[in-house]
Amino acid sequence: MASSYGENASKSALRSSYLELCRNFPEGLAAGVDRAVVRMLGMVREYREAGLVLAYVPFHEEMDTRPVIERALAQGKRVALPYLQPRTSRLSFFEVASADGVELASRGMRVPPVGEQPLEAGEMVGSVCLVPGLVFDGEGYRVGYGAGYYDEFLAFYPGEKIGLVRSMQVSSNPLPHDEHDVPVDVLVTEGSVWRCRRL
């Protein structure tokens, strides 16, 4: 695992550091690494057995998830993408038929198809949620962009939480977190599948 500033570092300092790291990662190398992450995801039992995948589209320098979406659909899985409800600032997920042709909204979210209804919690039982983040630690805690949308959603999410991340974005030191932060269950990098251990 890569190093970080450790648990004494502030989230804002970690966020700035890993944003810079991702910006400077060579584009050609990133594409190969991201393809390897997609292959490793296929080794995760919960992903293989899931009929529904809650995915996301990349924001700024996040890992390219479009191949994940395309592969999941090709495997006959249902795929849903997040939408930030403007009045409540809460995440909802809407089922999509492809990663293309869906209007991009703020913060990398996608505008849902007109007239469609968001998925209910009961429909998400047995699903997997792919969780974005700038850096993760071995217990599954993460530092994202700081808005807290995913933590609020994941607090009530009934399925398996999977972080997709390049290995350079996995910290060997514990990340700062509080009682509102929700860790993922599994980390998938280009070289490993890591079952998160929490003390």
Task: Report what the structure shows.
The chain has 199 residues and is α/β, with parallel strands linked by helices. The protein has one domain (11-195): Rossmann fold (3-Layer(aba) Sandwich), CATH 3.40.50.10420. Helices cover 24% and strands 19% of the residues. The protein has five helices and ten strands. The chain has helices spanning 11-23, 27-41, 45-49, 66-74, 149-154; strands spanning 52-54, 78-84, 91-96, 128-131, 135-137, 142-143, 160-164, 170-171, 186-188, 193-195. The chain is globular. It starts with 10 loop residues before the first helix and ends with a strand. Mean pLDDT is 82; it is low at 1-8.
Quick overview:
The chain has 199 residues and is of the alpha/beta class. The protein contains five helices and ten strands, in the order αααβαβββββαββββ. It has a single domain, classed as NagB/RpiA/CoA transferase-like (Rossmann fold).
